[in-house]
Design brief:
alpha+beta, GMP Synthetase, Chain A, domain 3, 2 domains, 3-stranded antiparallel β-sheet, two-stranded antiparallel sheet, 5 strands, elongated
Length: about 130
């Protein structure tokens, strides 16, 4: 079981501390924060893009392919009425010199992202409770 401590850093900052790391978040200035760190939902999207990225990088490394110059561009779209995100797209940008025969394999690699798989099957059960210390 993984455990994270979620702490309040002042203002609208909220941090997650786990495994020796501190992941800082803040709200934008328009949301009442200082804009000193990404908003929590931005980190959620970043986890999708970076997860896909590690699979693309690992594919290239495993097959001895050049990964320099490869980048992923991720875009999201909101549904105008509800404001809920309804679409996420990732483009894998490769240099012209990257062998075309591996393009589809790069897409398949990115689609193996564990974060994407969890979202696709549905989120885990949520339980929120109050305990005293």
């Amino acid at each position: 079981m993984m455990e994270m401590d979620i702490t309040f850093g002042g203002g609208k900052r909220v941090d997650a501390i786990f495994d020796g790391f501190t992941v800082r978040t803040d709200q934008s200035r328009s949301g009442g924060g200082e804009g000193s760190a990404p908003e929590p939902f931005d980190l959620f999207f970043a986890s999708l893009g970076t997860c896909a990225g590690i699979y693309v990088l690992s594919f290239c490394q495993h097959h001895g392919l050049p990964w320099e110059g490869i980048r992923l561009v991720q875009r999201t779209e909101r549904e105008p009425g509800s404001g809920m995100y309804e679409k996420l797209e990732i483009d894998i940008i490769v240099p012209k010199s990257f062998p075309e025969k591996y393009h589809k394999a790069l897409v398949r690699s990115a689609e193996q992202c564990t974060v994407k798989k969890h979202v696709a099957v549905g989120l885990p059960e949520f339980r929120v409770a109050v305990r005293t210390c």
